[in-house]
Specification:
Layout lengths: L1 E5 L4 H13 L4 E4 L4 H11 L6 E4 L4 E3 L2 H11 L27
Helix pairs in contact: 1-3
């Protein structure tokens, strides 16, 4: 089971949540901004209140940093419910960076 400690107004958390949705990965979400028990759990597990924080109970892995979390779920859980992964071409107009196009 994957648990993500997050805050809804955190842009790094939103990045992880969007990528998880794109990759069809589900989390048990714990909003530490609204739930004192979740914040206590986060402090116990992570030793600090920084979010996002991922806990993978099955593999004994826990980590901070949105880019590390995205890489982890991409490598270990992406498309686990999909029979075949189809690679779609990415089309960008201009030289702007598309943060939502990582999946």
């Amino acid at each position: 089971m994957l648990t993500l400690y997050y805050k809804p107004n955190c842009s790094f958390c939103q990045r992880v949540l969007q990528m998880a949705e794109n990759l069809k990965v589900e989390f048990d979400l714990k909003d530490v901004s609204e739930d004192e028990t979740a914040m206590d759990e986060l402090l116990e597990k992570a030793g600090q209140s920084q979010v996002p924080f991922l806990v993978d109970i099955e593999k004994g892995v826990s980590m901070h940093e949105s880019s590390d979390i995205i890489d982890y779920i991409r490598e270990n859980y992406a498309y686990s419910g999909v029979v075949a992964q189809v690679s779609k071409p990415r089309v960008h107009i201009s030289n702007s960076v598309c943060e939502s196009c990582e999946g």
